Amino acid sequence: MAAEEEHVKKPKSKAEVCGYPVSIFIIVINEFCERFSYYGMRAVLVLYFKYFLRWDDDTATAIYHSFVAVCYLTPIFGAIIADSWLGKFKTIFSLSVVYTIGQAVMAVSSIHDLTDSNKDGTPDSLTIHVALSMIGLLLIAIGTGGIKPCVSAFGGDQFEDHQEKQRSRFFSIFYLSINAGSLLSTVITPILRGQECGINTQQKCYPLAFGVPAALMLVALLVFLAGSGLYKKVSPQGNVMLKVTKCIGFALKNRWRHRSKQFPKREHWMDWADEKYDKRLISQIKMVLKVLFLYIPLPMFWALFDQQGSRWTLQATTMDGNFGLMTIQPDQMQTVNPILIIVLVPVVDGLLYPLIAKCKLNFTPLKRMTVGMLLAASAFVVAAVVQIQIDATLPNFPEPGQSQLKFINLGNEAVTAKWTDKSLTLDKWTNSPYEDSKSEQIRLSVQYGQKPNNYSIDLQSGTRQTLLLTNSPVSIYMLKDIGEKPEQGSNAIRFVNGFNQPVKISVGGTDLGNVNFLSSTNYTLVGEGTSNFNFSSNGFFCNSSKTFGFGSSYTIVIKEMCTENTNLNLMYVEDIQANTIHMAWQIPQYFLMTSGEVVFSVTGLEFSYSQAPSNMKSVLQAGWLLTVAVGNIIVLIVAEAGEFPKQWAEYILFAALLLAVSVLFAVMAYFYTYVDPVQIEAQFDDEEQKKNHIYENGVNACEMEEGLKAHEDKQNDVKQTKI
């Protein structure tokens, strides 16, 4: 008892609320803030890579999954540090400091004014921002991963032995705080990102989207530190993972030494460790290894699951997020997962599983996990179908060596244009679709009425261009068009003056200046919704408005200005179609993926814990987290090495891989024999008790024999004395 007290530092105060230690509430608040910080930052991360750091989709996806992989590798080291060196409290505190610094560095890295010396709204040196981002992400990965295995265990340490019921409820509340933090942050941080902020120019507010999670992590740190005097602190007593690793290492080394045929084989290769380690530990490791062997196919599930935050978010950027009463940001679609978890967990546990049991179907944990993997694979098939529909609505931009040309007739009569082997006729104030061309220079004939006019036109490879035609007098004017979908769901608009007088134009509060006849403004980005335009010329003022969707581009031609006798007349030429596939079409794939998570992840942890000894839970937790890390590494490899002409092909590849892995896992599960660790350990306890009993009896027998011998010697001495 005294030795046990040496390992435990009691709290200064034993205050309780409703039978729970006060320290528990502090730990729950700390976990909520930390999870808000992590998931809030992670929700906007892939869009930060794409739109701020200007990485392509594959690079953004690869770095995102590299970060997640490191986050799930570091818990192993966090657990070793806590159990073997610092203890849980000091480990949580020190790594939370690292975590907070990392979040602050991420917020600083996203300030575009930091290197924007020319004040044009674009960083002059992305290298500085990339370097700061990588430092910040590394610190965050070390912090969040390092404290992951410690916080829940530290909470469990706060209870006394007679508080088993409260301890069980604590873990439920703890899990609820994780989901609450995840759900709220995934809703809030994309809204913050969508705001505009800046010192010199207004841009998407990534500093606010990263700054709020950084502030929440600071709150988590301060709250945790404030409760220092209320915690029960258990001193480090050695890490079981190190013991397991050393035992396995010794068994392998000993087996290699005795690889010759002259040495008899043993039932299991771990039995080669019995020269140094006791049979109980070896038996426990055997049980753990059986479960870890089943973990081998599991990373493929996580490879698909974690793409909700990368590929699926990027897919949502090409979709329509208008839900009527609200507009959903692409990164907010991730909230579908925690919402569905809250709904599906009680439905599956309280309704589906009991119904299957009543039907007398043997729906074992491993069968459930197989079904979960198949559901995840089907989710990616659905994602591929959605992607095919999206691709059908996306513009086909010219490949290198090609160009595209569009004509707009600003004349008051029809015009015929001829070049190479093509010809088209446009009525007045109409436009043509884009025409493909493989020539860098074309001879163009423009004919109003009877007389043609010839021009030599230079075309830029890999670009789209618009040619303005007019007959007052006959002339042409070339415009370079936008070469990609507008970013972040914005709409790119420009104005062309087809009126014969200069016109001053403004959009919202942005003044675009005076535009002469047959001239155009630069592209201006406007958000989804209604935008207002203001025009003035020769003392006349008029305005107009248009409602835009997501990701469109328009050339707006001023046909007539408002005067005493005429009204404003605008011509809208669609250069790029708005996103037409609604984000709601992602809900089926989220539903299938979340359903798979519920029957795979929850069941997997439950199965693992039921098949391993109580002192080996941390080893299985480390193995489980390792499968998540390996899954993200798989995505990293595919994103960097795979070259797919269309994104849907990559989705099908992942679905096919998981399907194959599901079959493999089903075969492995078929041959798996369930064990009862409690019963096995009870056998060892019985054997130890028998050994102790034999030992004690042996000692007693020896004592009796020695007593009898001493008594006989004493009697002999007495006889000799009498003689």
Automatic annotation (TrEMBL):
Membrane topology category: Multi-pass membrane protein
Record field: transmembrane: 62-80, 92-111, 126-147, 168-188, 208-231, 287-305, 339-357, 369-390, 619-639, 651-672
Entry's localization field: Apical cell membrane; Membrane
One Pfam family recorded for the sequence: PTR2
Protein family membership: Belongs to the major facilitator superfamily. Proton-dependent oligopeptide transporter (POT/PTR) (TC 2.A.17) family.
PANTHER family xref list: OLIGOPEPTIDE TRANSPORTER-RELATED
Protein name, as recorded: S15A1 protein
Organism, as annotated: Polypterus senegalus (Senegal bichir)
The gene coding this protein: Slc15a1
